[in-house]
Structures are given as structure tokens and as C-alpha cells.
Automatic annotation (TrEMBL):
Residues 305-372 form the FAD-binding domain. This is Related to salicylate 1-monooxygenase. One of its GO terms (biological process) is secondary metabolite biosynthetic process. GO terms for molecular function: FAD binding; monooxygenase activity.
Length: 429
């Protein structure tokens, strides 16, 4: 169906957030263009896991997104682990304040709903999204540099010297978002992401090797190995052919000086960083292919996600650490709410009303994900001051702490945003 609305939306950035938004906008008959900095759509070769809220949001944006997800989703291998998000176990023995944790103790089987762990290979999922974007909607090599106003139009200026016009600009340009700097202004304390104090090694293992080393249960079903100031998670991707690994550590000085946030690593570096960890964790580290190390940054809360007709979505708005597996899911929820709201706008003069309503509904929830994600890492890494090494207390928290993310009623969220748009015309910021 050809777009019918009397305005055009520029979407800067074609990651999971930007692509889901564009698919939603086109379904709502909103004309739009994606401006992507890279020469083509691309994702890294790693896994990403989605909570049930994210899967429902996909279906609500467009049933074909849910279909594409189904084409590449992998769930836990064992029927009895079908509803399990992660099994938590002790990966490193230790004691603190008179409490001892023993290696391999099973801490919790955390259930996330009837689908349990649902994860994809990022590149495969992105391919499924790209299939839903009609030819001509995306322009590549377009790195946003600035946005100015000319008459009624916003003008996007790109690093390659070209310019384009639009009625609204949605910055989906990730954790180092240029749009965020333009919107908040570069010297705002929330303009740039900050180091969370954690970093992680990422890599993949062919499943047959993982099964040989760990046995069927631990290899084919999602696991988190807990230890003081570190944790290691694994889940199957690629229809069970591959095991995805992320091995987290705490940086004791809390600083990340390297200007690179991602760099190649080695098995030796990982072994040196996980001295004293149990046999299972060390086997996993030894099998990881082409590991990278990632500094984990997140955003201080922005006071607002929009200004005039410029708006932020996904990591550009609320980059989070990955400890609840919820960052991409929040980008998809953003895309749902914003595409529905923009689909109800019938004049460029009302675009700001939609962005204001989006901000009112999406900002509190997505920023809570950022805060609670940091807290989650302290729990997994036995650093939580009131829980420490008390595994029974940890179990009770683990079993319930993500339910508010997973059980969200998205229809109500959309309705609240629609009501906010109907009631509150945008004023000056
Ligand atoms: C280690 C790790 C593990 C994670 N695991 C999970 C998980 O299991 N589950 C989950 O839900 N989330 C996870 N996340 C978070 C998730 O990766 C992000 O939330 C998600 O990818 C954000 O998508 P996005 O589209 O907003 O941004 P991005 O994926 O960063 O996409 C931004 C796009 O914008 C483009 N771009 C950048 N600058 C410009 C510019 N100036 N002009 C034009 N284009 C530009 C980029 O090239 C890119 O294509 C994890 C994150 C990390 C670091």
C-alpha cells in the first residue's frame, strides 16, 4: 500500500530499531526514508535474545516481523527447559561475610513465559527485517552530521556533503548517536554514554564442540554462571547449531580509557581474567572462536526524547547494559508506539504531538530498563550489598525481577500513548 500521509519522516540509522520503525511506518502509510551511515545494512556475528514483550511488539508492528523472527529463532533444546529464560549456577566458588558458595550449585531456574529463551543470530534476524523494507526506502553511506530548519522543513546534512529534507527526523543511530548530541546539545551531561564498570568477551562455539565439553543439558539450554565480580552466559542460536557466549567482568577502577569500545581478544587474555573460575567456565572460554572484548556503556537518563520534530529511538534514546537482554526489545517497543502514533497524524503541524506522547510513555519504562540492568549485574556477580553470597535471597530476586519487562501489556501502553496525544497538544519545550 502506497504511503498516504502528507508528511515525510527521515529515519537515521538502520539497526534493529530503525528497521522495525520503518516497517511499522510503512504499514501505517507514513512515507519515510532510512539514512544509514554504513555502505549496507549489517549486524555483528553474535546472538541477541528477546523477552516475550519484544516478541509481542514485533507481531503488533507487523505480523511479517514476527514471521521473520520465527524463521530464525532458537529456543532451549530440552522440552523441560521450554519456559526457562536462564538456569543460574555458581561458576566460581568463594566465600564472603561468612557465606560460602560452592561450585556448580544450581541457584535458580528463571522462567520468562511459555516461549522461554528466544534468541537469534543478529545478522540472520536483520536479514529478515531487511526483506520487509521495499527497494528505494534506504539510502546508504549517509552519516548524519547536522539538522537545520528551513521554512517548514527539517534539513539533514550528511558527512558526504549531501542534504535531504523531511518533516520529522527520528534518530535511530545507536549508542554514539549524533542525533542525541544535536537534540540535547553535545555538552549536556546526558548527551554521551558512560562506562558502566563492566566489560564482556563475546564469541561463538559450534554446538557439537560445546556438547562434547559441557554435556547436552548445559550446551543446548541457556545458562548463567555466577561468580564474584563476573558472570558468563550461554544460549543456543542458529537453530541449535551454535552456542553464543558472553563472559562479563568488572573493571575494578571503573574507568575505560581505551577510545575503542570493541577490540579483538584472545583465549589467553580471557583465561588470565577468569583465574579461579570453575572447570565449565574455563572450558567455555577455551572454545570461544574469535573472541572480542566489549566495554559496556549506557546512557544517563535524557530529560526528554524529542525536541520540536526531532526524536530519539532505541539505543540513541536509552542505551543500556545487556544484563536483562532487553535493549533491542525496548527499541522494538519504541518502534511500535511511535509508528502507531505517527500513523494517526494527519498534518505536519501535529507531528510534535505524537513525539510528545511517545516521550511521555516510552521514556520512563525504557530508562527503568537501563537502571535495573546495572542492578541485575550486581546480583549475578554477587556484589549486591544486601544479598551478597546468599543464594536463597538471590534466587527469590532472580525469579521475579524481570517480570515487569516481560509481562507488559503493550496494547495498554499504545492506548496510553494515543490518549496522551489526544489530550495534550505539544507546547514549547
Ligand atoms: C554485549 C551486548 C549484548 C547485548 N545483548 C542483547 C540481548 O541479548 N537482547 C537485547 O534485547 N539487547 C541486547 N543488547 C542491546 C542491543 O544490542 C541494542 O539495544 C540494539 O542493537 C539497539 O538497536 P538500535 O537499532 O537502536 O541501534 P544499533 O543497532 O546500534 O543501530 C544503529 C544504526 O545506526 C547507524 N548509524 C550510526 N550513526 C549514524 C549516523 N550518524 N547517521 C546515520 N546512521 C548512523 C549504525 O551504522 C547502525 O546501523 C546487547 C548489547 C551488547 C553491547
Amino acid at each position: 500500500m502506497a504511503p498516504e500521509k502528507p508528511f515525510h519522516v527521515a529515519v537515521c540509522g538502520g539497526g534493529i530499531g530503525g528497521l522495525c520503525l520503518v516497517i511499522g511506518l510503512l504499514r501505517q502509510k507514513v512515507s519515510c526514508t532510512i539514512y544509514e551511515a554504513a555502505p549496507a545494512f549489517a549486524e555483528i556475528g553474535a546472538g541477541v535474545s528477546f523477552g516475550p514483550n519484544a516478541v509481542r511488539a514485533m507481531e503488533m508492528i507487523h505480523p511479517l516481523i514476527a514471521k521473520g523472527f520465527e524463521n530464525c529463532v532458537t529456543m532451549n533444546g530440552w522440552p523441560e527447559k521450554k519456559e526457562t529464560w536462564f538456569d543460574f549456577r555458581v561458576g566460581k566458588a568463594g566465600s564472603r561475610d561468612g557465606q560460602e558458595v560452592l561450585i556448580d550449585t544450581h541457584v535458580a531456574d528463571v522462567k520468562s513465559g511459555k516461549l522461554g529463551q528466544t534468541s537469534v543470530h543478529r545478522a540472520h534476524y536483520l536479514d529478515e527485517l531487511v526483506k520487509l523494507v521495499p527497494h528505494g526506502v534506504a539510502k546508504f553511506g549517509k552519516r548524519l552530521k547536522d539538522i537545520t530548519e528551513e521554512g517548514d522543513k527539517l534539513v539533514l546534512l550528511f558527512e558526504d556533503g549531501t542534504r535531504e529534507e523531511a518533516d520529522a527526523v527520528i534518530g535511530c543511530d545507536g549508542i554514539k548517536s549524533r542525533t542525541r548530541h544535536i537534540l540535547l546539545e553535545a555538552d549536556h551531561p546526558a548527551a554521551s554514554a558512560v562506562f558502566s564498570g563492566k566489560y564482556a568477551y563475546r564469541g561463538l562455539i559450534p554446538m557439537d564442540k560445546a556438547v562434547d565439553a559441557l554435556g547436552d543439558e548445559l550446551a543446548r539450554n541457556s545458562q548463567i554462571y555466577m561468580g564474584y565480580r563476573g558472570h558468563v552466559l550461554t544460549f543456543p542460536i542458529d537453530k541449535g547449531k551454535t552456542m553464543n557466549v558472553v563472559a562479563f567482568r568488572t573493571k575494578l577502577d571503573g574507568e575505560w580509557e581505551d577510545p575503542m569500545w570493541v577490540r579483538p581478544s584472545t583465549t589467553e587474555e580471557m583465561f588470565a581474567d577468569f583465574v579461579g573460575w570453575g572447570d565449565k567456565v574455563r572450558k567455555i572460554l577455551g572454545l570461544m572462536e574469535n573472541p572480542d572484548v566489549w566495554a559496556l556503556f549506557d546512557h544517563p537518563p535524557a530529560p526528554v526524547f524529542y525536541k520540536g520534530r526531532i526524536c530519539l529511538l532505541g539505543d540513541a534514546a536509552h542505551a543500556t547494559t545487556p544484563h536483562q537482554g532487553a535493549g533491542a526489545g525496548q527499541a522494538i517497543e519504541d518502534a511500535l508506539v511511535l509508528s502507531v502514533l505517527l500513523g494517526q497524524v494527519n498534518s505536519p503541524a501535529n507531528l510534535e504531538d505524537a513525539l510528545k506522547a511517545y516521550d511521555a510513555v516510552r521514556r520512563p519504562r525504557s530508562q527503568r530498563v537501563v537502571t535495573t540492568s546495572r542492578e541485575a549485574s550486581h546480583l549475578y556477580e554477587l556484589e549486591n550489598a544486601s544479598i551478597g553470597f546468599d543464594l536463597e535471597k538471590a534466587r527469590r530476586q532472580l525469579e521475579v525481577r524481570c517480570k515487569w519487562i516481560w509481562d507488559e501489556d503493550l496494547s495498554t501502553q499504545v492506548k496510553m500513548a494515543q490518549d496522551a496525544m489526544a489530550k495534550r497538544p505539544a507546547g514549547k519545550l
